[in-house]
Amino acid sequence: MQHYTMNLTLKVWRQKNSKSKGHFESYQVKNISSEMSFLEMIDVLNEELIAEGKDPIAFDHDCREGICGMCSMYINGRPHGPWEQNTTCQLHMRAYKDGDTIVIEPWRANAFPVIKDLMVDRSAFDRIIQAGGYISVNTGNAVDANAIPIEKQKADDAFMAAACIGCGACVAACKNSSAMLFTSAKVSQLSLLPQGDPERKTRVLNMVAQMDKEGFGACTNTGACEAVCPKGISLSNIARMNAEYFSASLVAQ
Amino acid sequence: MTWKQVFTSSIGKKIVMALTGIFLILFLIVHVGINAMVFADLNLPLWPFDSNENGAIFNKAAHYMGSTVLIRILEIGLFAGFFLHIIQGLVLEFDNRKKRGSENYAVSIGNKGSKWYSRSMGLLGTLLLIFLIIHWYHFWLPGREIMHHEALTPVTYDGIEMHNMYALMEYTFKSPLVVLIYVLACVSLAYHLLHGFQSAFRTIGVSNNKWMGLVNSIGIGYSVIVPLLFALMPIAMHFGWVSS
Questions:
Q1: Which residue of A has its CA nearest to B5?
Q2: B153 pLDDT exceeds 90?
Q3: Which residue of B has its CA nearest to A236?
Q4: Which of A169, A177, B105, B241 is deepest in the core (most CB within 10 A)?
């Protein structure tokens, strides 16, 4: 595709801190290259704001390679912007044309309070992982990873679930602000493998209990999470977690 | 983990919705099956039933349902199913709405990735609840003799006196407004089922794609056929497609 430049109008959510009330602010950005990434476009705007002595827009980012799960913007009504299976950092400005208006909002959920501008606190996800998203391993010599036979299909399914980067787009897209896609991916990834089997029941019960405690909503299977997930995590993980939870809850003392 | 904890967790609440939903889906098969007997009176060439019986087949079936002790006991279960599904549904709807927080998105995600009816189960369910109350008022209360209705006359077949529910249907569906309400309710039901049928099976843990494919196909078929049959009853009665 031919390189081109564009002028854009940005409507960005500005919020001083978690306590203050936020508002939208409009910015004009000029001569944006179609080869830039979306975050680079924000960088350009921020440099201008700093030069003008204004407060730059705070946003989360880290690897800018689409694998860390830090970037998190809700762009024109869709988490991570218009492209399928894509993170905001991997969204490029060729998705837009000259004169476009782009509305940028933070993830909106009670469980993800805004820290500043477009940054939200996603430590609720960390606490869900801490509640059971691990396997306990005895210390000593490392066991040969290939000593336990694993069915290929299960290994593949576990790997696909493990692709979740924990960005929270599923929560942002869900009308119930449910974290079921995230939690179910983490539950599935371990419960499908023999290494995860010993703690299978306590894991799902504890992770779901933590998920509820953090204030995420209940899943109603609308499928919006799956549609916006940058890693294509399947809705079938939620069904798997439901089954895991149901059977575990019936026998748990 | 107590039973209370099981059924008040987010997944537990959903499992209650799913199990009562599947129970109500099974009930609708019985309901539509019995009521479809009014079509025995259709005025069609080569129709294998006698179209001049004034709903005798339907009346006898309705009498069987109303006078059999086991079915009356099962009806208590049906009310419990309705009650749980409605209360839990409303609780979930209001709970879930609160999770977004004080500020909502300026640009809505809309239909990107989900169907409008999957996001509107609370609204569709509420419409069905309103309809259910109207429906009880029309048929269940008079049929159970909780409320007197002048159009509900007795009729005798083979020496057994029973309610002429067929005549009550004909009387009720004379009003075009009532017919319209019933047809709109059937449309709500169709969309409610279109999402609810497959969602219930996901919630009870069907993750296998082969089985979900089957569930989806049966769900679509069910969501079209059952509400369509229900909708055809007031229409057929109103336009005189069945004899009186």
A1: A249
A2: no
A3: B207
A4: A169
User: Quick check: B122 and B91 in contact, CB under 8 A?
Assistant: no
Q: Give yes or no for B100 touching A (CB within 8 A).
A: yes
Average pLDDT for B149-174:
90
Domain ranges, residue A242? 123-136+148-251
Q: Both A154 and A35 in a single domain? A: no
Pairs of CB atoms within 8 A across A/B: 156
Please report, for the domain that includes residue A196, its CATH number.
1.10.1060.10
Whether residue A82 is contained in a domain is answered as yes
Cβ atoms of B101 and A108 within 8 Å: the answer is yes
| Residue B22: alpha-carbon gap to chain centroid | 12
Nearest to B181 by CA among B226, B230, B144, B148: B230
Q: Among A34-43, B106-115, B193-202, name the one with the lowest average pLDDT.
A: B106-115
The ipTM assigned to this model is 0.90
Residues A130 and A96 in one domain: no
Could you tell me which of A127, A145, A124, A132 has the C-alpha nearest to residue A189?
A: A132
Nearest Cα residue in chain B from A111 = B99
Q: Among A115-124, B62-71, B118-127, B235-244, where is mean pLDDT lowest?
A: B235-244
In-domain check, residue A154:
yes
What are B82's two structure tokens? 């309705």
Contact B92, B13 (CB under 8 A): yes
State whether A27 and A86 are in the same domain: yes
Q: Are the Cβ atoms of B119 and A242 closer than 8 angstroms? A: no
Distance CA B177, CA A103 (A): 45
What mean pLDDT is predicted for residues B171-194? 97
Residue B54's pLDDT is what? 84
Position A115 pLDDT exceeds 90: yes
Tell me if residue B173 falls in helix, strand or coil. Answer: coil
Tens of pLDDT, residue by residue over A54-100, are: 999 999 999 999 999 999 999 999 999 999 999 999 999 999 999 99
CATH hierarchy code of domain B7-95+117-238:
1.20.1300
Tell me the CA distances in angstroms from B64 to B24, B60, B162, one per residue in order: 20, 6, 10
